[in-house]
Automatic annotation (TrEMBL):
Keywords: Lyase, Magnesium, Metal-binding. Its EC number is 4.2.1.68. Belongs to the mandelate racemase/muconate lactonizing enzyme family. ENOSF1 subfamily. Pfam families: MR_MLE_C (PF13378), MR_MLE_N (PF02746). The keyword Metal-binding applies. Residues 186-282 form the Mandelate racemase/muconate lactonizing enzyme C-terminal domain. Its cofactor is Mg(2+). GO terms for molecular function: L-fuconate dehydratase activity; magnesium ion binding. It catalyses: L-fuconate = 2-dehydro-3-deoxy-L-fuconate + H2O. This is Mitochondrial enolase superfamily member 1. It comes from the Eukaryota. GO terms for biological process: amino acid catabolic process; carbohydrate catabolic process.
Amino acid sequence: MLHKITNLTVRDVRFPTSLEQHGSDAMHTDPDYSAAYVVIDTDCGLKGFGLTFTLGKGTEIVVCAVEALAGLVVGKSLQEIVSDFRGFYRLLTSDSQMRWLGPEKGVTHLATAAVLNAVWDLWARAEGKPLWKLLVDMVSHRKYRCWIYVLDVIAREITGLIYKDQMLREGYPAYTTSCAWLGYSDQQLKQLCTDALKSGWTKFKVKVGADLEDDIRRCRLIRQMIGANNTLMIDANQRWDVAEAISWVSRLAEFKPLWIEEPTSPDDILGHAAISKALAPLGIGVATGEQCHNRVMFKQFLQASALQFVQIDSCRLGSVNENLAVLLMAHKFQVPVCPHAGGVGLCELVQHLILFDYVCVSGSLSHRMCEYVDHLHEHFTSPVVIHDAHYMPPKDPGYSCEMLESSVQRHQYPEGDVWKLAQERQNNCV
Ligand SMILES: C[C@H](O)[C@@H](O)CC(=O)C(=O)O
Ligand SMILES: [Mg+2]
């Protein structure tokens, strides 16, 4: 069957997470976790679902960008796309008028991610496999032709499939960010840590960067809660300049964080290198990637030894195609990949990529773990399964991107019931 694509729709779906400060950090104090949600229809009735993640306002701009790309997708068949996926990736990212808006960064790249995520979902569904298994099988059949530009640093040899059974049995290790968003009270932090420890979590991330004294208090509290042997990470979401990052994190070194995440501007590669060098004697690494535009930036981060943990993002980079390139480069440079997840749908998507990374690329769990955030999974038709702080490999065909239609309708902005109600409340207050 050819699976000719007959239609592409995109919707602005938002969740009012800011009301309870879920997802808050030093730079994003009121995030409403949102998605530009794409559905691809085909002539045989099979659909592909994809999304990219945003924080509320501005999702409508990503929706416009997806609409601008739709004409490049509709009318093509799945076979046509996947038989030259590299060409299709270039088509989406190199349109001679659209590329001026990027290239391969910002809104247009988020839109590319949403569209390509839907295409990969469609492909995995057409093959009747979860996406991670489709990728693993592609490697065993030597069908990897999805990356460009970075061949100079890509490792060609890919390890075998010996780790698959282990993953199916035990799952992929995860850490939680859910206990310590910046807007949570100390009481809330304590309660959430207690619950998480009971559920088997051993690795925790805490938001920092707004106020040093607050950070010291919160890091002390969380370290007391989790004990000396569990793992702590800290995340500043780009709040500092380079010198400030070094002095601030040095003050937090007594709490033994494994990494400082996004200490400064995500574009400052040499700044990250300087921070990495200064913090290495304290045993603190630098992690970044959730706002790293593309594989070319990652290549330079790796070449400059500017990060010690690569945080791929399933919706920031150009979907699976570009994430594969980054996984291979990280392997080449022997830097562990610890994906960014959370948001809405990011856990659902990125679990496929990290499973592939373990089974076919890295074959190692040393200093490797995938982020987990305990929000909004109930809106997906195949939500993540976490067991004993591990991601259990998804079994359903596809890329786990499909949302419940009832959830999409309720949260569609601005006409969904959730937003109409919020608007009415606001009008009554005025
Ligand atoms: C605004 C988002 O919640 C951001 O804080 C997420 C993040 O940095 C992370 O999960 O890491
Ligand atoms: Mg982060």
